[in-house]
Design a protein that fits this description.
The chain is an alpha+beta fold. It contains 13 helices and 21 strands.
């Protein structure tokens, strides 16, 4: 899981998680655990977040076909006091991208979409700058399309209904961020184009194709394309926490996110999805391998994945909702966290629940105790530690303590909990320093998201 997550409030661009520190995803395999999962601890971890008003939503954890935790926390509707549970419908935000990706792969299996053909095959009016843009590059965010949800006018235009063609017009005249295939930049614009490809290739609307090709055959009766004017039983209301307290989230017309983030579902339906997808009931083996094999920066096709594919996951955010879903294929563990409250809680809870499901342990920030180390002891840790050739953690002395700064990110305070053992409070991460035979600090291990990632001192 990427380190030092910074998530923008209420934006469709929730997937920063998959992008900001993708080199960390390649740091090593998930360690196997032998202990039985502690379900009571899972509930305790989620409840602590809920009681701190950081999380409101539904959680489901299943292992090898057995549901371990299936519970709602907080309220689906605060005005009426309706509680959350596994049958409450949440907007998925960027979790929708995997459904879009699977839809494209299904059409590829049917011979209707060539993943490496020019986008002009389906959109003949596409600008010349897009000649090298292909569905595969759109799926993996390597096409270079500028991300329309970051444009200055997005907050104004997000409330206005738009057709697929009108959405494409918002970014079709802008230059590419880089030549297709030459870089990586998360782009919701790419998934708008993929929605258009699905419509052109299938002859159906995006919403109809997803419903008829995926949701209906898999018995996902509580999933679909969201519309604000539809009467949808058990739909959660979305909230945001401001300085003044809890408020209703901003409005976004659901024609805007389209295949980038317009779907809704429940934890129960999403478990059906995970079991069907990874059980081989949706895609052919070759397509499933393509879906889950990283292309660049730890991102595959609509999903993030470790290089060994031991963890496949994504997160999402849209006004009033944050989501996280992960699957560990070897252990057949599914973790689903759906929140109707904007914030980072699902991105913290999801990896913690995966760790517990695999028999690991999780320590709450409130359970950690800060100790004071002398200045000369702290000085021994100062240095640069490489997690990959292009990604490092820099440890500096500051105000009688230490700070850590990841490549391209702000610095955060490190707090000591013992000799060589430190933790962060702004994100759920810990650092253990290692020493050589002579006792000199020669590296560190970053502990985050159930992973232990070693780094050598430069």
């Amino acid at each position: 899981m990427p380190l030092f997550l910074r998530l923008r409030r209420g934006r469709l661009a929730a997937s920063v998680l998959a992008l900001a520190l993708a080199p960390v995803l390649a740091a090593g395999p998930l360690a196997a655990q032998d202990r039985a999962p502690d379900v009571a601890r899972m509930d305790q971890i989620v409840r602590a977040s809920s009681e701190a008003d950081a999380f409101s939503g539904a959680v489901l954890v299943a292992r090898d076909g057995e549901i371990l935790l299936d519970r709602g926390y907080g309220l689906a509707n605060r005005e009426w006091g309706v509680p959350n549970d596994g049958d409450v419908k949440f907007r998925l935000g960027s979790l929708s991208k995997q459904f879009t990706a699977v839809a494209v792969l299904l059409l590829s299996e049917q011979g209707k979409v060539d993943l490496d053909a020019p986008i002009k095959t389906w959109l003949p009016d596409a600008p010349a700058a897009w000649d090298a843009v292909t569905p595969r590059r759109l799926l993996s965010h390597t096409a270079g399309l500028p991300n329309f949800t970051t444009f200055a006018d997005y907050e104004t235009l997000k409330t206005r209904p738009a057709t697929t063609a009108q959405l494409i017009a918002r970014f079709s005249g802008r230059p590419l961020d880089f030549a297709p295939g030459e870089g990586f930049a998360y782009s919701n614009s790419g998934y708008i184009l993929l929605s258009a490809v699905i419509e052109a290739a299938s002859g159906q609307t995006y919403a109809d194709f997803i419903q008829q090709a995926l949701f209906t055959p898999l018995g996902m009766a509580d999933s679909g394309y969201d519309r604000h004017d539809r009467i949808l039983p058990r739909r959660a209301s979305g909230y945001t926490k401001e300085a003044s307290g809890m408020v209703n989230a901003d409005y976004v017309d659901m024609s805007i996110p389209l295949g980038a983030g317009a779907l809704y579902s429940t934890t129960h339906d999403l478990l059906k999805w995970e079991q069907a997808l990874f059980g081989g009931r949706v895609l052919k083996p070759q397509s499933l391998t393509a879906l889950t094999t990283p292309v660049r920066n730890g991102y595959a096709l609509g999903l993030a994945a470790t290089p060994d594919r031991k963890l496949v996951w994504h997160n999402g955010a849209i006004e009033g909702f944050n989501t996280y879903m992960a699957y560990a294929p070897d252990d057949r563990i599914a973790v689903i966290v759906l929140a109707n409250l904007n914030g980072q809680a699902p991105d913290k809870l999801g990896p913690d629940l995966m760790t517990l499901a695999r028999g690991g342990t999780v320590t709450l920030a409130s359970e950690r105790r800060v100790v004071t180390l002398p200045a000369e002891a702290l000085a021994a840790y100062v240095g640069v530690y490489s997690l990959s050739p292009t990604f490092a953690l820099t440890i500096t002395a500051a105000e009688g303590g230490l700070k850590v700064q990841a490549t391209g990110q702000p610095a955060f305070e490190l707090k000591a909990q013992g000799d060589d053992a430190f933790f962060l409070t702004e994100v759920d991460a810990q650092i253990t320093f290692t020493r050589d035979a002579e006792g000199r600090v020669d590296g560190l291990i970053l502990h985050q998201g159930g992973r232990d990632m070693p780094a050598k001192r430069q």
